[in-house]
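Priority: medium. Attachment 1 of 2:
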């Protein structure tokens, strides 16, 4: 359980990156004086080595880095770390009083820009500022806002009811539109998107107070992180929290991605509850009639991919829908809980719900409706399959399936049959989603294979070319057990290995051919990858 008064963290971890041995030694010496609040996790001699370890730095709170380093600059390093770990605080060091460097540091929301030679008083002040920021992030102000006035609470309840109704409507009447406006929700001529926050744990494993506090933190962080021209309203019931985003100006997934990712990180750190978030496409005013039901249905559809992509992620409908062959879906039936459990990959829940129905109809009062209920039950299970044709091709035809089902004698044999069918449907659903993920990974690999010779290749260029968001790229690569840097380095090193076999190819020429502007940086990367320098490799 999380409480607003709990101090989540007292000791903060930091890493150092500086190509000067003397500066690293001095920093370590000065940081000894701050050991009550800070501990040094690692010290690096360049930014490239930090990026190599990036997957192991999730617990790092502060980066102290030289702004000018070989291979990877401090600015590039800070930007990469911010993309992976949005909460990390940056302190820049520099031997140059350069306004352009300082301006870029400000754009990265750096804590401080300190000039060498470094003084203890300046470092101490910068660390105190970083600690203040981290303390604010980890602990919401102890002065909790006083309870809202009764009319505000009533308005919030009205808005919640309005939005729960809105997500069921294809279009709205003039009367309902007027009611929404009276309740403070003006939809006309607005850019609109839905989001849905949902805990990754099963509902039964979460306490009511835990969820109530988590929802409180979600709403507080939404207020803190979203710019004023993107308005939002929250709605929901016990576990999930829906969000309606509205704006008079156009906005894009990129403007939602970082704040939503930051919120997920904060909620996990503050409340020890992992949430995932799904976001619909953004509806443009006057372009077409808005179907609110369709927008929210797309939000829930994107959330289904949590079972494949992993937990704790922001999932955009636009990233998933255009990369996956669209399979025909049916509307919810009276057994929609079973359908939803299958679509979310929750086989245990689907089995339990099926068993409950079978147990109920095994009573005398269901004598005349027994087979009717069984027919509805198997129909609902089949509706939970996203590729019914594949089920019939790889498991049983529809006729064989129904004949086997109705041939079962007794409750135990019926449940055994249904459990096997549920397992097969979950397998097919996961396989269908994985096909889209594998295709996306192949697109990323092909892009690297085609552009690895370009020195400017980056996550941003990959995102722009393929139309994926950064968080989707990171999630896909993590799912494959790799990263953008590793894939790019692997391709470049394999090509370098082949080019070195020809003695007529000079090292500078090879470096340029595979995308390295600096031959010395190429030599450093090659030795780090193969354990020997290019010259030594060529001799062998």
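Attachment 2 of 2:
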């Amino acid at each position: 359980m999380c409480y607003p008064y709990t101090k989540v963290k007292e000791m903060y971890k930091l890493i150092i990156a500086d190509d000067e041995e003397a500066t690293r030694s001095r920093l370590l010496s000065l940081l000894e004086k701050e050991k009550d609040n800070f501990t040094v996790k690692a010290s690096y001699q360049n930014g490239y080595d930090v990026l190599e370890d990036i997957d192991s730095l999730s617990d790092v709170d502060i980066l102290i880095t030289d702004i000018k380093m070989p291979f990877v600059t401090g600015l590039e390093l800070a930007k990469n770390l911010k993309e992976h770990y949005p909460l990390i605080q940056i302190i820049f060091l520099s031997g140059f009083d350069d306004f352009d460097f300082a301006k870029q540091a400000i754009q990265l929301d750096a804590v401080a820009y300190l000039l060498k030679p470094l003084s203890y008083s300046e470092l101490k002040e910068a660390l105190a500022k970083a600690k203040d920021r981290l303390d604010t992030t980890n602990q919401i102000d102890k002065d909790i806002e006083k309870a809202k006035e009764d009319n505000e609470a009533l308005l919030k309840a009205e808005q919640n009811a309005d939005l729960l109704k809105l997500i069921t409507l294809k279009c709205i009447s003039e009367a309902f539109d007027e009611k929404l406006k009276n309740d403070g929700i003006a939809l006309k001529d607005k850019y609109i998107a839905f989001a849905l926050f949902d805990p990754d744990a099963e509902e039964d494993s979460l306490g009511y107070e835990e969820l109530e506090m988590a929802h409180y933190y979600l709403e507080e962080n939404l207020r803190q992180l979203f710019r004023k021209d993107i308005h939002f309203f929250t709605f929901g019931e016990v576990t999930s929290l829906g969000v309606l985003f509205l704006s008079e100006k156009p906005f894009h997934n990129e403007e939602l991605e970082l704040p939503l990712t930051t919120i997920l990180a904060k909620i996990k750190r503050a409340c020890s509850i992992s949430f995932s978030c799904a976001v619909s496409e953004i509806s443009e005013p006057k372009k077409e009639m808005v179907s609110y039901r369709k927008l929210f249905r797309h939000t829930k559809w994107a959330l289904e991919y949590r079972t494949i992509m992993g937990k704790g992620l922001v999932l955009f409908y636009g990233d998933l829908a255009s990369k996956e062959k669209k399979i025909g879906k049916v509307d919810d039936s009276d057994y929609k809980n079973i359908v939803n459990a299958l679509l979310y990959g929750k086989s245990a829940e689907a089995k339990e719900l099926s068993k409950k129905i079978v147990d109920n109809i095994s009573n005398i009062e269901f004598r005349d409706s027994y087979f009717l209920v069984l027919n509805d039950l198997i129909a609902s299970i089949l509706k939970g399959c996203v590729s019914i044709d594949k089920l019939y091709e790889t498991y049983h035809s529809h006729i064989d399936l129904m004949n086997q089902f109705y041939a079962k004698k007794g409750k135990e044999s019926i449940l055994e049959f249904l459990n096997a069918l549920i397992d097969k449907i979950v397998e097919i659903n996961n396989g269908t989603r994985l096909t889209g993920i594998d295709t996306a990974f192949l697109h990323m690999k092909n892009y690297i294979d085609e552009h690895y010779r370009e020195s400017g290749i980056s996550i941003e260029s990959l995102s722009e070319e393929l139309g994926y968001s950064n968080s989707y790229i990171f999630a896909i690569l993590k799912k494959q057990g790799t990263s953008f840097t590793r894939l790019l380095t692997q391709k470049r090193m394999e090509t370098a290995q082949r080019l070195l076999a020809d003695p007529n190819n000079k090292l500078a020429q090879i470096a340029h051919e595979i995308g390295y502007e600096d031959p010395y940086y190429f030599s450093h990367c090659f030795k780090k990858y193969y354990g020997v320098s290019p010259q030594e490799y060529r001799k062998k």
